[in-house]
């Protein structure tokens, strides 16, 4: 049995079709905004040591969140008897992204590499194989008929009648790849 993981939302789908979402992206964004504002205020006061301490604290918090997320994902995989975990290969996403402004800042502060490396080493401990998949069009391709549709909001709707959450569609397509 395989497991497909869509990293941005940490949507996980077992090849049996069981879906589960882990983590809270909005909470992470809120945390990032809080520390960004704190650094901005400290910068105006020229408190450089305090800014370094805040950076360290934020990175420790995000590392802890990633450890907990990876543990939940690996536990889900083990409980569902998954032998392979399929992850998106997001190595060049920062160069190829067409985002602007606030969304670009969110992408650049996202710790996807750290999360995937935690998933990888924890999976290795349990003998679960990790495979990286090209994420191209995974959230735009219908898992039933294969038609590609642009998604305008969080819900995916296809002409064949299939509809689901966009992140679930991506995770399903990743789980079925190879």
TrEMBL record:
Pfam families per UniProt: Cas12f1-like_TNB (PF07282)
- The record places domain Cas12f1-like TNB at 112-174
Top-level taxon in the UniProt lineage: Bacteria
Q: Does the keyword DNA-binding apply?
A: yes
List the molecular function annotations (GO) for this entry: DNA binding
Keywords from the UniProt entry: DNA-binding
Q: Which PANTHER family match?
A: RNA-GUIDED DNA ENDONUCLEASE RV2885C-RELATED, TRANSPOSASE
Q: What is this protein called?
A: Transposase probable is891/is1136/is1341
């Amino acid at each position: 049995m395989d497991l497909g993981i869509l990293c941005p939302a940490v949507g996980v789908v077992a090849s049996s079709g069981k879906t589960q979402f882990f983590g809270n992206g909005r909470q992470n964004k809120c945390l990032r905004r809080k520390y960004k504002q704190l650094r901005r205020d400290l910068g105006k006061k020229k408190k450089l040591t305090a800014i370094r301490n805040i950076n360290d604290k934020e990175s420790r918090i995000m590392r802890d969140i990633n450890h907990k997320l990876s543990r939940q994902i690996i536990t889900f995989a083990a409980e569902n008897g998954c032998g392979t975990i399929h992850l998106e290969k997001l190595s060049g996403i920062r160069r190829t992204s067409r985002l602007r402004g606030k969304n670009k800042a969110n992408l650049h502060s996202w710790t996807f590499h750290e999360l995937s490396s935690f998933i990888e080493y924890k999976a290795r401990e349990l003998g679960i194989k990790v495979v990286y998949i090209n994420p191209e069009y995974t959230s735009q391709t219908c898992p039933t008929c294969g038609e590609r549709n642009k998604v305008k909001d969080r819900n995916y709707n296809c002409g064949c009648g299939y509809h689901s959450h966009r992140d679930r569609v991506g995770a399903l397509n990743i789980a079925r790849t190879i």
